[in-house]
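User: Study the shape:
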Amino acid sequence: TGMRVAVVGAGVSGLTATKCCLDEGLEPTCFEQSQDIGGLWRYTEHIEAGRPSLYPSVISNTSKEMSAFSDFPYPEDFPVFLPNALLLDYLRRYAEHFSLREHIRLGTTVVSIRKHPSFATTGQWNVVTEAGGKQTSDVFDAVMVCSGSFSEPSLPLHCFPGIERFRGQYFHSRQYKHPDVFRGKRVLVVGMGNSGVDIAVEASHVAAKVTISTTRGAWLLSRVFEHGYPWDMVLNTRFMSLIKTNLPRPLSWWLMNYKVNQRFNHKNYGLQPEKRYFLPLLNDDLPSYILTGRITIKPGVKEFKDNSVVFHDCPEEEPIDIVVFCTGYVVSFPFLEESVVRVENKHASLYKYVFPTHLQKPTLAVLGLIKPLGGNMPVAEMQARWVTRVFKGRAANVSPPVPQNAPDAGHTEWLVYLDTLASFIGAKPSVLGLLCTDPWLALTIFFGPCSPYQYRLGGPGRWEGARQAILTQWDRVLKPTRTRVPAASSSSFPSLLIVVGFLLLLAAVILGF
């Protein structure tokens, strides 16, 4: 019999983990505590304990070509950014297409995962699961933890003096579903992540007043980027990545700062972040809502009073009725022993964000924890491809020479991370190699968007359709929006030659300094 692998959770990471196990001839059993697949992307009206919670208006932050699984492009008629229901539909098609359902046990909770007594030699795990009130214990050769990091809200009330005397209502963004609760109210949104900004924008349609309190500010990107192209197809290219990673950090920060401030001057809108790099937010509405007075940006909260709040560096009190804490989530693995994955200040000690650094055998992996600026699906899939090769003893680089402490994930460039894992399994595309054999593809790969299909051109898991998928990616982007004019033949993103010429000039200028 093959190697038995337990997969915890049937969301984005769990589905691709199950599929990659099958690709490598392993025997996956995927345990999902709820009654259906989809994880974060399966919207439910009621909030279930231990499960992520979406609000109905959530739309993907990354475009479909940049967030597809690498051997399964989105249908061409799907919109470029996906409402949550369509994303769920895609995940269901993926499960269907690769026959994953028969390996998934729904309504089954993983209670505990402990080292088997023979772990030192076999690397096996005892996995206890519960279904219908009955517990079962099984032995697995390896474990893939795909339970995500959006189930346990982080609500540090002790950081908000006076909250206990505040008479209004307050809740964590996880509880948010519909804007009706804000009707006619003065709303304060604390924290400025993607959810915070989304919720503030929605609230402002019905609320009397909306204020966002942010300590550190943020850069803001719009899904609709330069010339109306999706932001990630313009920014996440090998060419851009090369510039960003080879410039000295202050210069690279300046470049990004210049780019994001072209749309609007962040200082004038009270948004300019302090001088260190963290992930930009994605929102298409905030600047115009600030400009039209529907949303006001304020500094961090100093303290709450009975019916009002005081901000740092602002003497006057601001009356408020309702507070939404958009303060993020805590990463937790209730079914694992503390010693297996140590979580300190929101970071787990994991090699490449995947393998616990101090296990004698690399037979347990955590997927989908890293959130770089780019699509999560290709990242989870690449992690799964690497992990399943490691389980089989086929991939390089598992025991790190020194345990690494997870640095700020914001510094990990999406493309660089994908390339690193791809090189471990021999699936990283060689632009120079292709330049000789397939120059058009090479240029498209280097100057065009780094779409996930690039990682299926060669190596284990090579997919015949990869080249075609790359050369037609812009067609699938334009199809759903060019609905009033007949679709032209394959229009390669603004005439590639002009772009290439301009970029070579730019490269000359940069290297010239």
Summary: The chain has 15 helices and 24 strands.
